[in-house]
Amino acid sequence: MGTIQGTSSDFWPRQRMTELPNIGEKALKTLIVAATLLLPPAVAEAQSPQLENICQVVAKNFLLTDHLNVGIIQSFPELKPPGARLTYSTRPGTSKSDMIDSFECEFDKSDPPYHLTRFCVSQVCYSASDADADRKRRFDEMRILLERTNK
Predict the structure, then answer these.
(1) Is the pTM of this model over 0.90?
(2) For the chain, where are the alpha helices, taking DSSP H only?
């Protein structure tokens, strides 16, 4: 069997690998603008305003308040089960950075009508299968209130 003469550097131009090709500043700016316009904002499209709104309704019902200051809110319609989570405060004028309480919701599907399967307030979760009778009752109350708003 014969051997191949030469090295890989014989096949490539003698340009250092750390050097960038000279495509021109205007061409580079055009390429960046085109890439920005063609690439969709993945984070924004993954969010579900409907799931976020329904989770806020559940939070307001659970906390017995008409006004809820929401800090950060995220939704995950692509997960199984789909859900949303948010930071909140019931105190008026609270800055988002001071909102440390969290509320999470899980639903059976990401399309209406939404059926609540579980929700959590900070570290305490509530569901239909909860062994604790009080937590199971709070879950049933939120599920019933949500069904009333879905009608």
Answers:
(1) no
(2) 25-38, 42-46, 49-63, 133-150
